[in-house]
Design goal:
Layout: E1 30-34, H1 40-47, E2 51-56, H2 59-68, H3 70-74, E3 78-82, E4 84-85, E5 92-97, H4 109-117, E6 123-130, H5 132-139
Parallel strand pairs: 1-2, 2-3, 4-6
Antiparallel strand pairs: 5-6
Length: 142
Amino acid sequence: MASDPLQEPTGRDAGTPAITKHSVPLNRDLVFDVGMHRGEDTAFYLRKGYRVVGFEANPDLVARNRKRFEAEIADGRVTVISGAISNTEEKTIPFYRYPGVSIWGTTKPDWVERNTALGETSVRIDVPVVSFVEALRTHGMP
């Protein structure tokens, strides 16, 4: 993913047309919840009347959120995307989850080192790579 989604894509999204301010619809009622975790922010934005697209890499939290927001998913107010946002060309990426501290889940090796130094042991799993550019094309600009 390019650092600015309105710039020319790199990595996995290279070769696809750039997203410009006019190429995807602006949705004033849409929020992207990147790192959805347990859905606290999603619930807040739903109460405010927004639709939410939530991104979560931890499959346990994805399942929990799909159950928690089952009715909102059914009526189109919530979409849960399973995987980690990355610009890698790979289909999957290593994700490190922490059974004792779920908020620490990460794809970043330096964070794994920090968390290990703090006494937390991670479990490595491979999760799908999610293209943020494709999410903008699919759901529109929040």
